[in-house]
């Protein structure tokens, strides 16, 4: 029988796919070591250690498990760290390494948080009313790109971020991580990241006439007070927080009082940021008074620089007596998501100048806090703003201990199911020459499904395992149909009986795929994982393993 199998294309197709699957899984039993899951911005190892790289040794002591890293949590002094990129020496001034590690994977399979612990967050973009499904999908793609940029810059291991859709057609964004914490996700990824720069201008009412003058690029414009919350310009009324165009600038109405009104010229936004400095030469933390201050630079677009020139051209100069310091009468205010992050003096030399370089400052009571705030701000500015705000609608968290318990339970359940299938099939046929090929095909299908999952980087979680079990169950059922038809005593010959069996098999497979496709496209979480894995399993069966089993049965019956 083996010689006849080797002559057919079905065996070689199966052999090639099976070997490619084994290589794709890349199993390495007993592989020791750890992989860095995340690195805090305040970590003393942050300058040279990155998430996703292996950690080999600390102070000449090999690191084989996460516990080997935990033992150094209270260490202070010079530490020698051996990692993927070589050896680095760092002075640990106070306890705490600020890193999270996980065991080095023994395969290329990506295990989900259900099996190794982690956090899953479902975010709902705040779409405008009337946004179509196509527009929602495009926005979700932009959100995913922005969030992935933020995770890479911030030092988190690459997070699975994908679109999911419910039965009503609403598109969500799902983030799953086994390394970062919920605080990491909410503090960094949940921000819209809308950056804005303003230069405020005060318009004073003249001679109790409730009318004031504002200069923009050498031209005078008249503004009239309407009430304590509104002004009039160009025949239109504007209230607090509304915007109006004066000359070639856009102003926001900030505050209207009995003696004046504050208007803020809009000079920068997220689209104007072309580069964010993160190198030590242009990004640093220094001690200032009783706290710590951070400083880093950004490069803006020419359009933003021209707005800056127009907004500063008519400001007055303020000189400090007895000093050469000279600043303009107004500061530049930098906001992130409407929160003031910098309030900076403008040097007199910059008045009316097209300036592309801007420095951002901030601070904290501790050095670690200042570095953390600077890193988060740099990350959000570098990745750009989200098209719409995000709202957390669901959070699932599984501890690593519970994840290992799930994995053990699933393994036991799989063995019990396998023994049950073996027993039932043997009782049905009482022939090992029929049962053994059937079980071999079932086991090979599991390996091929896992190989495909590793190749497409599909995460294996509890729902995916359920899908594998379901597809294997339908596979064994299909093989029973093929075996029964081949062994029947009908008047058709063996090939014709097997062809009739495959008509049933393909019909059942088409039905299963048709049922799973909607869940794969609109499912959230569990439904999507189950559907995709089931579809993969069914396709592997009808394209690779069922044809081989049909040939085995045909040869066996003839012999």
Task: Describe this structure as you would to a colleague.
- The chain is an alpha+beta fold and 559 residues long.
- It has 4 domains: 2-28 and 399-558, Multidrug efflux transporter AcrB transmembrane domain (Multidrug efflux transporter AcrB transmembrane fold, Up-down Bundle), CATH 1.20.1640.10; 34-103, Pdz3 Domain (Roll); 118-189, Alpha-Beta Plaits (2-Layer Sandwich), CATH 3.30.70.3400; 193-385, no CATH class.
- It is 41% helix and 30% strand.
- The chain contains 13 helices and 28 strands.
- Helix 10 runs antiparallel to helix 11 (462-487).
- 33% of the residues are buried.
- The model has no long low-confidence stretch (mean pLDDT 81).
Instruction: Please tell me the overall pLDDT.
Output: 81
Number of helices: 13
Question: How many beta-strand segments?
Answer: 28
Describe the global form.
elongated
> How many domains make up the 3D coordinates?
4
List the helices and strands and how they pair.
Layout: H1 2-6, H2 9-25, E1 34-39, E2 54-58, E3 61-62, H3 66-70, E4 77-83, E5 86-92, E6 99-103, E7 110-111, H4 113-116, E8 118-125, H5 133-154, E9 161-165, E10 171-177, H6 182-189, E11 195-204, E12 211-216, E13 219-227, E14 230-233, E15 236-239, E16 243-246, E17 249-256, E18 260-269, E19 273-276, E20 283-288, E21 291-300, H7 302-312, E22 317-319, E23 326-328, E24 332-336, E25 339-344, E26 357-364, H8 367-383, E27 390-398, H9 400-429, H10 432-455, E28 459-460, H11 462-487, H12 494-522, H13 526-558
Parallel strand pairs: 7-28
Antiparallel strand pairs: 1-2, 1-6, 2-3, 2-4, 4-5, 8-10, 8-27, 9-10, 11-18, 11-24, 12-13, 13-14, 14-15, 16-17, 17-18, 19-21, 20-21, 21-26, 22-23, 24-25
Helix pairs in contact: 2-10, 2-13, 5-8, 9-10, 9-11, 10-11, 10-13, 11-12, 11-13, 12-13
